[in-house]
Amino acid sequence: MKILTKIVSFAGLALTIVPPIMFYLGSVELDSAKVYMGVGMFMWFVSAPFWVNSKA
Amino acid sequence: MKNSLFKKIVAREEFERVSIPDDRLKGSKGFLGMYAGEHAAGTEFVIGPLFVAHGVSAGDLFVGLLIGNLLAVLSWGLITAPIAVKKRFTLYYQLERIAGKGVVNWYNLVNALMFCFLAGSMIAVSATAVGIPFNLEMPTLTDWMPRTSGWVITVLLMGAIITLVAIQGYSQVSKFANIMSPWMILIFAAAGIVGLAQLGVGSFDSLIATANEVIWTGVPMPGMTKFTIWHIIFFAWFCNMAMHIGMSDLTILRFAKSWKYGFLTFAGVYLGHFLAWLASGILYAVFLQANAASQEFAPGAIAYQTLGLAGAVCVVVAGWTTANPTIYRAGLALQGIFPKVPSWKITAIVGGITSLAACFPALVMRLLDFVALYGLLLMPMGAVIFADFYFSKKFGFQEEQALNSHTNFSMPAFLSWILTLAFCLFLNFSYGVDIFFLGLPGWFVAVAIFVVLSRIQYPLKKQLIA
Asked: Which of B73, B20, B43 is nearest to B325 (CA)?
């Protein structure tokens, strides 16, 4: 379960940083990049609480 | 402060008045993570754009940040950390041993007030994002007073919520901030990338041209003073003056296994005070391109325009996660003065002051000056700790004079504080020396005054005879 939430979290982080890079390279429109970043934020918010603090 | 290490440090019952035992020392990884998270905060959304508004040039900013941040890291590593690992006391207890409880109470009062204003500015920053769906009229660069009743209501509501959360305790907020930290750092990076794309940067040459001609043009906005490389160097060096040469971070670094951990602050300053300041400056330049000659200064709206919902949420989260521990710290400082008042009452009072302060956009628009003032006000006490540690034996006065002479009020420490601030005020009023440059001469003056007065009032010979 923890592995699954970690995968979702890192996918969320990827959706936060990859669309801006793709926008910079001209592969995606800004509006789409904003949507992907919003989805990435949601994925990080719902998954990270399950594992980020558990290591501490 | 965003992780379990800080939670341990602020746990009030833990090692408040004793040296940290060896088995409770922390490794370098915890410090690296904590500093990386700590310096990518709500203030970064304001400072980067204010550099743009102050008309700093691209070259001055880049070189100034490299040098200023390096000086800050060296200050932590060479001045704060060696004393922290040798003594292993909190700032407050170390200061109490030198200056006495009476002086520490005054220090706590000033500290608490400064924390309230800092937290207030962060609530205001968050409000610029929260107000977007309500079409709230945003403050402008020259605003000192609130523009609309809607702004006041938004800020007071946010202040009330943040205060209620702070009353519940620090733990949950710390966990939340810990979770948000990696995402926020990526949002800052995303801001820079999207911003550069929107400004048409496609190569290294166009990056240099855009940086010089569009983003950091060297021309200040109307009503703003011109910043030079010296402003940037000294601001980057001294924006955390209270923490390094002001010695606040004794409380954190006392847990370090080695004094070299002080240098780990590089992770924080070069992420937060370099990458994040550059990125938020780029965001503001994009905003200015789309809203030519606009005087509006609203980090939330600026981030929303370029990054959409994720940008606006990041501003709210960054402001909140900075405001909340700051309110908590202000409460701790005040509780040192009023130990019998319940902590929830103290936090409620602090939250009330903070919320009122947040109504005034001046705290955001003059954040650079405020941050400099905050460090300057607390710095002399750090100089006192430094002088006590290194010069007491060399110049022949009692080490930890309040403790060893059983007094609650060390006049040399108190006068070092007051006279140093008077000296800085004199430099500012009489010679027009900018507030950003007062910390350096002030520190030397504070050390000199403390050494001379201590030599007179607490000479080592007296202690030996006694």
From this structure: B43
